[in-house]
Amino acid sequence: MLNRARRSFLGALSGLATIPLLSGQTRDTGFAPQKSAAGRLNIKITDLRCAVIGKNPTVRIVTDQGISGYGQAESSKPYLKPMVLFYKDYLLGENPTDVERVMLKIRRLGAFKPWGSAVSAIEIALWDIAGQVAGLPVYKLLGGKIRDRVRVYNGGVRFPMTGYTPKDYAENMAKMKEAKEGFTLIKQAVGFHNMPMMNQVPNSWYDEPRSGASHPNRGLMTERGLKYVIACVEAMKNVLGDSIGLALDCGPGWAVKDAIAFAKAVEPLHLTWLEDLITGDYVPYVNADVYREVTQSTSVPIHTGEQIYLRQNFKELIERQAVNVVGPDPEDVGGIAELKWIAEYADLHGILMAPHGIFDGLIGLAAHVQVAAAMPQNYIAFEYPVGNPEWWYDIVEGLPNPIVRQGFIDVWDRPGIGVSFRVAEARKRLSEEDRGFFD
Ligand SMILES: [Mg+2]
Q: How far is the centre of ligand 1, averaged over its atoms, from the C-alpha of 76 (Å)?
């Protein structure tokens, strides 16, 4: 017996029966559009697969109705496949259109970057299926779009550096300014996020250089070190003028007083934000009190959040006004609905959104576009992921051409996340171990 809510959802879906199910024409799995709405709602997960395609771990959720959903994790995590498959037994037999019900089974079994990635990729694949079943783009299921095109920022379209002097940074920024994508906002690494810059002058901070896990260096900067970073920033900003925004990815690892001194020094440059001065990039905790001290000391917007898993771990940052901008990555935070929830909560508190995404791949790019279309007006831009290697652009379909125009991506209307694989081409890129991924 169907309850009233379920009957009304079925009614809504019946009304959608005439919407062209474009996914059925393009997806490899032969979606059967003639199936009744009730039949489609009884869909069940039959398999969870993961292949490392290029460098991106790619998730495929297979169902009993010929529909598959795809999700992706960062290209920096080729080791993730066993973590994805860990969740398989939790998913088998579940209805993928009850996204939250499925997520309740697995969300607790994740952690800060990189260990929230598998859960996040699965969440995105579930939404991809839910959208295809409904015959709607995912942004409709997230509340509908409030913008027809989404702004992206350049964190990953790069040109080779000729050196690491302020002049070199200025020349390199001039090339980014002229990039064909027409970005209106560019992010550049500085400070401990850019060790060639830190190593350009001797003794730029009071500790010995360290190696090991990502971004291991931190400490108090010397006067010479701090002045050098500021000089590089000024040179880059001189190139951009006030026509293109400049954001800086700074750390983690700055001493609080250095962070404040740096922020105050660059205040006249009107930077868009200073990212991860204190924590970030594989730092598995939130340091809201310290961020709050930095944030309250400067007019430059302070940003963090790419390493954080789940909405609960943004609570203190947001409620205490510890930062001005948060930047969860949908492939680390727990997925796109998780990101939307954080965006809404941040908006209630006057905090802005600029999601991280540089390594998220082209399936990840599609997920970003869906959620960015539906985010509230605290949305600034998401970090544009590039296909790596270059052949990624040959194995997917559904992206606009060109993808970015004048710094924006037009939101597309195909069901699900709206980007899928050219299977014949993509098969050629599978490793021997992943040969059966598309079967
Ligand atoms: Mg960053």
A: 13
